[in-house]
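FAQ: What does the model actually see?

It sees only this:
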Amino acid sequence: MQKIMLFTFLSALLISSQAFGQIDLSPRIEARDGAWDEIRIQEKRPIDYQYVREADIIWQMRVWQFIDLNEKMNQPLYFPPTPIGSSRNLIQVIMDGVARGSITPYNVVTDDFSMQILPSNDMIREFENKSQEAQDSILYYALMEQLGDDFDPLDVTKYYIKEDWFFDSRRSVLDVRILGICPIKEDYDLTTGLYRGDRQLFWIYYPEARDEFVKAPVFNRHNDAQRMSYDDLFIRRFFSGRIDKASNVHNRRIVEYYGEGLDNLLEAERIREIIRNFEHDLWEY
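And it is asked to produce this:
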């Protein structure tokens, strides 16, 4: 009797397991982290700049600025520290663009984008027989080779930007174009742990990076339904910068003739006032 009951139980278990294997367990509705599909950022394209003719430029000033990620207004450039869904911090967007071959890293020896970071001959030979996707990432490995094994993207706490301010007489407007962005990390002695200053890592050419920036959402502290891209953030000037240098006859930074401290800040503000007042002084009220 016990053998019959055991056989019946095993048969029922086998039948139920076969039936269970035929059940479609796929979700009836695909799960998503939100009430609607977010496609606006993914479908965005960079807005073309207004055409600028050299003959229409009646005033220009080249400016270099520091963007400190410790400032509250600049924190959307640093967070999230690790990707959360489609959200990435700025350095991750840049590194992903370099890995895809859509952003070119340039050497910090000069900021005129004339010295591209190139792979070594050994690295070129290693990649020449690999897939196209792997070959596109060769600049990424060349960059990582230069940055060193101890490089951590979260160590990037500042950015250095180079931009041109100018007045376009054809449109009667004061305009600005960002030319390049340079990530900066704090440099410490590995032996003593002493702070040795800021270290510029590499330059990227901003107009080239716009295709990547425009598809990368950034946190909007005022409205979750109106998420900006990094391109929106820079074009609309939603960041706080401190002027480090303006075009001058000696090609000097402010710190070279005023040092650190209050005089440095006052000189940076004086330069900002020159830019702010130029357009205002052209008009009569």
